[in-house]
Amino acid sequence: MSTLQRIVSTLVLAAVGVCASFLFTSTVQAATAYRYWTYWQVSNSQWSFAQAGPASTTPANGSVEGWRFGISSSRADQTMTPQFTSSTAFKEICTNETAPAGMKRVALVVDSGLEQHAPRGESPGGLVTQCVQIQENANGYDVLRQSQSVRTDNGLICAISGYPRQECAEIVEASAMQTNDAGAEVAALNPDVTSPLPFIIGALFAAILGGLVWKLRKRT
User: Fold this and answer.
1) Which of 65, 102, 165, 178 is the most exposed place for a label (fewest CB within 10 A)?
2) What single string gives the DSSP state of each residue in 34-47?
C-alpha cells in the first residue's frame, strides 16, 4: 500500500471515529429525566439531598426541611435545591416561634420551582415557608402534612398543595431541564441546541479526502 493510500485510510478511520463520537453524544443528549418533588435538608448550613424518604427521616428540633419541584435526570442535582438561603433558613422562619414542652420546631421550605418546569396548563405556586411545631418523634412526612396538603401514590410524594394536579414523577426529556431560575437551557443536555462544529469537521474531512483521492487517481 502506498503512503498516500495509508493516509487516506487513516483519515477515513478518523472520520468514522468522529461520527461515532457525535452519535454517542446525541444518544446521551436524548436521555430522560423526571419531573417531581425532591426532598432536601440543611446540613452544615448547606442544602443536602435527603438520603432517605420523609417517612424514614426524623428531623431534629431546630432543623430545616425543604421540598423543590422540578425536572432532573440525577439525584442530588444542586440546581434543584429550594430557593431559600440555607444558612439562615431556621432563624428567618422560626425566630419568633416557641415550641411547647414535648414539641419541636422544624423550618419548612416548599418551593414549587420554575415556570418552565410546570406541567402543561399549570403554573407553580411560588415559595412557601412555615415554622412547624410538631411532636418530637414526628418524621419528615408528618412535618410536611401538618403544613401542606399532600397527594401520594405508592409511597411517592406526587403533589403538594395540589401541585401538580394529576401527574406523579412524570418522565420527560432531559432537554426540558434548566440551569437556573433565569431559565437558561443546558446545551449539553438539549438535543435541540445544535453546534456548527460537526458540520465544520465534516466539511474539512470531505475536502481533504476529496483532494487526496483526486491525487491518487491522477497517479494511477
Assistant:
1) 102
2) EEEEEEEEEETTEE
